[in-house]
């Protein structure tokens, strides 16, 4: 039986040997052209799910270090003890077109959260951050998992603009998952 695996990719992984198409050429190009350099230069780590017996990549995500500046007046969900709040960035996150809308994205996010929670127990790391494309379905996906807007008022305005089909001046918006809050709810 062909079962998916989950693995961290190292610098010897040959991306050209695998099939992947998320439907967005920019992200396909990242996978095939830039991902290996990001790994080799320690800009991010790439994790993927693939079918063990075939060359099909189901989906992937990258994680790297980042922070949120706590000077943002709308950053109410995380305490403002430090000026910069450390976190992990869920940088690239995609699912092959054949596996979209089948729960694969949720499974991959759960893996990213597990890795982030483990990392936060080893080094100071308060949140998992995503710089989401401006897409109502994608933003709803992140919010359903528990992500919140870093800038609450900007997020509210953005959702209103999406509902009324107004054009956006930006391409992405930052959301975060508070790892400390998540850890407290899973510990109790």
What would you note in describing this structure?
The chain is of the alpha+beta class and 188 residues long. The protein has a single domain (4-187), classed as Aminopeptidase, CATH 3.40.630.30. Helices cover 35% and strands 28% of the residues. The chain is built from five helices and seven strands, in the order E-H-E-E-E-H-E-H-E-H-E-H. Strands 1-2-3-4-5-7-6 form a seven-stranded mixed sheet, sandwiched between helices. Strand 4, helix 2 (104-122) and strand 5 (127-133) form a beta-alpha-beta unit. The longest helix has 19 residues, at 104-122.
* Main beta-sheet strand count, sense and barrel state: 7 strands, mixed
Whole-angstrom Rg: 17 Å
**CATH fold descriptor:** Aminopeptidase
Order of helices and strands: EHEEEHEHEHEH
Total domain count: 1
Helix content: 25-40%
Quickly give the structural class.
alpha+beta
Mean pLDDT: 89
CATH architecture: 3-Layer(aba) Sandwich
**Shape verdict:** globular
CATH class: Alpha Beta
Task: Give the name of the CATH superfamily.
Answer: Gcn5-related N-acetyltransferase (GNAT)
Got a strand count?
7
- In the sheet with the most strands, the strands line up as 1-2-3-4-5-7-6
How much beta, percentage-wise? 25-35%
Which stretches are poorly predicted, pLDDT < 50 over at least 5 residues?
none
End-to-end separation in angstroms reads: 38 Å
The number of distinct helices, counting runs of at least 4 residues, comes to: 5
Which helices and strands appear, and what pairs or packs with what?
Blueprint: E1 4-8, H1 25-40, E2 45-51, E3 57-69, E4 84-95, H2 104-122, E5 127-133, H3 136-145, E6 148-149, H4 152-163, E7 172-178, H5 179-187
Parallel strand pairs: 4-5
Antiparallel strand pairs: 1-2, 2-3, 3-4, 5-7, 6-7
